[in-house]
């Protein structure tokens, strides 16, 4: 089942489609009871009979219910239509961060404008982490904005992982969006924790300030989707990202250094948590003495191991995608 404009669903009048993906679609609706617009997420038709994916949708509902924070999209109600679950959420009038970047010259934001948005994202992630939850899909399209386009609202906990929760994704295969995935996500590690979201947030901030994610497939690799994805995943495992300040000289030096620290391959070398990431971003530049946030030297053995793992993981993914 799908909605149509003008359709009445309980107290809601469907107005139009906001967006759709493989697992669900999101519609704008008018709430006649509260006299306000809302967003309604309904599971896509083809998935209704697929137990695993239907389970993921209901997992998202359960996770979202546990989270109440000013920087997380509020979940208002859950109901079913013809057996398909629906989530009613507050409508983010400013659209997504991805749309905001697309509308900006060179897809960049000045640091002064990016800071309040990223601070909100980090606050939302810190709250989720304190509830024992890792988002695992932090990216610009999952960061929504209010009408001022300065206040961030984190959304889409569809592949989040809560402590003690049974995984519904296939064992040994990574989940997430390639441009923003941490090395441990790519390796499908069983030890993914909050530091994975630190890495993904670093990727998002890198893109906000430079106009592109840290790693992008270029040349012949960019023509084929599978090859491009495999190339980007291998870069996350193997390559050192170019400093943001080298791509965009307007990025403050201390911010550039902090982003690189968030993007460490070794989770133990990253900024220790999203709250600390936010605190450091907001700190005065003079607090960062020369060399304070210099990236630790990369140990050759670690790089070699990462390269070996990259070959194995990417090969498995290409085989899986072609199956």
TrEMBL record:
Keyword terms, alphabetized: ATP-binding, Kinase, Membrane, Nucleotide-binding, Serine/threonine-protein kinase, Transferase, Transmembrane, Transmembrane helix
Binding site for ATP: 41
Domain of life: Bacteria
Residues of the Protein kinase domain: 12-289
SUPFAM superfamilies for this protein: Protein kinase-like (PK-like) (SSF56112)
CDD domains from the UniProt entry: STKc_PknB_like
InterPro entries: Kinase-like_dom_sf (IPR011009), Prot_kinase_dom (IPR000719), Protein_kinase_ATP_BS (IPR017441), Ser/Thr_kinase_AS (IPR008271)
TM regions (residue ranges): 299-320
Keyword ATP-binding included in the entry's annotation: yes
Annotated Pfam families: Pkinase
Single GO MF descriptor: ATP binding
Protein name: Serine/threonine protein kinase
Protein's organism: Caballeronia glathei
């Amino acid at each position: 089942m799908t909605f149509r404009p003008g359709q009445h669903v309980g107290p809601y009048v469907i107005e139009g489609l906001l967006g759709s993906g493989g697992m669900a679609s999101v519609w704008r609706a008018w709430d006649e009871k509260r006299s306000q617009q809302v967003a309604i997420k309904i599971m896509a038709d083809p998935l209704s009979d697929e137990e695993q994916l239907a389970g993921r949708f209901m997992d998202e509902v359960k996770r979202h219910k546990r989270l109440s924070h000013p920087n997380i999209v509020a979940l208002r109600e859950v109901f079913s239509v013809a057996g398909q679950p629906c989530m009613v959420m507050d409508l983010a009038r400013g659209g997504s961060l991805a749309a905001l970047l697309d509308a900006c010259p060179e897809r960049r934001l000045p640091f002064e404008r990016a800071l309040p948005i990223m601070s909100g994202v980090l606050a939302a992630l810190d709250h989720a982490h304190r509830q024992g939850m890792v988002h695992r899909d932090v990216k610009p399209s999952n960061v929504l904005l209010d009408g001022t386009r300065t206040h961030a609202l984190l959304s889409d906990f569809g592949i989040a992982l809560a402590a003690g929760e049974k995984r519904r994704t296939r064992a040994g295969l990574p989940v997430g969006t390639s441009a923003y995935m941490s090395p441990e996500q790519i390796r499908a590690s069983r030890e993914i924790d909050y530091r994975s979201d630190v890495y993904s947030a670093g990727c998002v901030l890198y893109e906000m300030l430079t106009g592109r994610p840290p790693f992008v497939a270029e040349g012949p690799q960019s023509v084929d989707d599978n090859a491009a994805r495999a190339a980007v995943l291998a870069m996350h495992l193997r390559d050192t990202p170019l400093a943001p300040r080298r791509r965009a000289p307007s990025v403050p030096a201390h911010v550039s250094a902090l982003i690189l620290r968030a993007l460490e391959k070794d989770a133990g070398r990253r900024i220790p948590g999203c709250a600390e990431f936010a605190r450091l971003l907001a700190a005065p530049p003079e607090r960062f003495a020369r060399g304070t946030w210099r990236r630790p030297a990369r140990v050759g053995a670690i790089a070699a191991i990462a390269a070996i793992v990259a070959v194995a993981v990417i090969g498995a993914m290409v085989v899986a995608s072609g199956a």
